Amino acid sequence: MHKRVSGTGGLARIHVILAVLIIILAVIISIPAYREYKYHADWLLCADSLRVVNGALTVDFLENDLQSKKLADAENSLVAILPGRDDYCPAGGTVYMLQQDNGTWKAVCGAHDSDHALRTRLNGVYVLSCLRDEIARASLDGTAPEEITVQLNGRDLRCRLVDADPGIRRGTRTTRGYSGTVVFYGISGRGSFDGESSSDREEGMEICFFCFADEDHNANWSASDGWSGSAYGDRY
After folding, report:
1. 39-46: long-range contacts at Cβ-Cβ below 8 A with a sequence spacing of 24 or more?
2. In the chain, which residues have pLDDT < 50?
3. pLDDT tens digits, one per residue of 115-153
4. How far apart are CA 172 and CA 183, in angstroms?
5. What angle do CA 57, 58, 64 make, to 5 degrees?
6. Is 88 within 8 Å of 49 (Cβ atoms)?
7. What does pTM read for this prediction?
């Protein structure tokens, strides 16, 4: 008497495997769509918030007989007009205050402003300032930190010490080997930066090279040439 071998178990396993693969594929496909949706939602929150902030700055400017105000005065006025608004971007973006030609101040978000080149320039200047403060503290120990973490747009940004220019000339989206936002800095007298120094810093360690690159643009600074990069309109 022969026993019949049933293939039901094998078919069931195949069905389960196929279902799992379909679920994994659906998740992979949905990740970019979710990120796009999340960014758009954050952008709307930021735009609405900064519209209120900039409206308050304009009203304060008009009520003070169109007199140009210092940044500290403008920020104090904002606190009085919008009490409890410490974070002007609800989505965690780093907000900068820019003075316009007519003397008014404008709040610009480093994560959501529609001018991507402006965002890169502002973020680059801010991160370089933070790195200089950290390097000044490290000078007391006489050792250059191999890596410094800076808070930018609500996230930790790792900045790495290098011995030579990494050669980034545009955004990381179109630069092979890089992704997201990257930051590199060089110290005067180290590696290929030997002999380079800025005129305003003569003692202790100093940053003589800086590279900030996000997905869209790069902003490079050197003690000898100042700022350059695609965020400043340079084409290579």
Report:
1. 42/90, 42/91, 42/93, 42/111, 42/112, 43/91, 43/112, 45/89, 45/90, 45/91, 46/89, 46/90, 46/91, 46/93, 46/109, 46/111, 46/112
2. 5, 198-202
3. 999 999 999 999 999 999 999 888 877 778 999 999 999
4. 11
5. 90
6. yes
7. 0.79
